């Protein structure tokens, strides 16, 4: 198949994906096409991360690979008619469509190229990231954004810190001491340097998910008033600009899902009080998410772009994967941006205080 007709075919799918108005409409189309429910649900999650129609596009692309070349467009057209979106057939009628679907090898290589380009862009952004005010020599402003990881024992905080580093550098190094075989937990705060200006702070486990811990322990840690050093002493800590709650949703936990959801919602409102901005939540899951009932309730309660579903690399399994790296680095970029806005918030509060002191 020529690259021209391949481009046309993807354009048709992109046009359809871009013009789906609601999740329900996408779901109806997916069901008409016989796409499994978990792929439909997965596309909804992916739509929340990055380009809003990316998940729908990938869902249609995956579907098209299982179709006969001669019939795929006819089936697509019928499905669009049945869900009342005949208008979307226009892109096919305008001659932007092809009579067959693209050759898989050609498609794979162009997908690979797109992934590499996207990955390079993300890495460039992070590598060159420096807060603009610091470039302008604002001495009061921290030069480093601290992203702090919190969560239950064994939830995957250290593995996430390692994954962020691996996705960025391409070299796997257990710099955060992931717990091998669940035997050894992180005992004290660890700093993982992604770049000179972006550091991850991996903390020890939360003792339990009692909401009292939020004001007694976690918020003081975020404010830099409490930390544990490598001699097990409680000390002054590091101010955390972007707090992230890590929840291993797939793994059985000591804490029931409802109690964990309540804990996260309480922590979120404490972070909102402190920074005027929501908590980030990383939900670690192993497989494609299964039917809708399995979706964690927090994903409906927090802003969409603050709840991320991620797969970690681990000590045992860290074969490089472009798509996984892209998801992990997009998450890192979002955390850096949240951190920077939270620093703005703190600086403004400090300036206001100084001004009111000056005028009093
Ligand atoms: N299969 C799989 N295993 C994971 C994943 N994330 C973490 N693990 C495993 O879960 C175990 C605990 O992971 P850690 O990263 O050490 O957990 P932690 O939150 O740092 O634990 P503490 O330091 O005790 O609080 C390790 O054996 C990891 O290899 C994941 O996405 N998939
Ligand atoms: Mg750990």
Automatic annotation (TrEMBL):
GO biological process: signal transduction
Domain named Death: residues: 27-96
Cross-referenced PROSITE patterns: DEATH_DOMAIN (PS50017)
InterPro entries per record: DEATH-like_dom_sf (IPR011029), Death_dom (IPR000488), P-loop_NTPase (IPR027417)
Highest taxon of source: Eukaryota
Coiled coil: 105-132
Keywords, in A-Z order: Coiled coil
Record protein name field: Death domain-containing protein
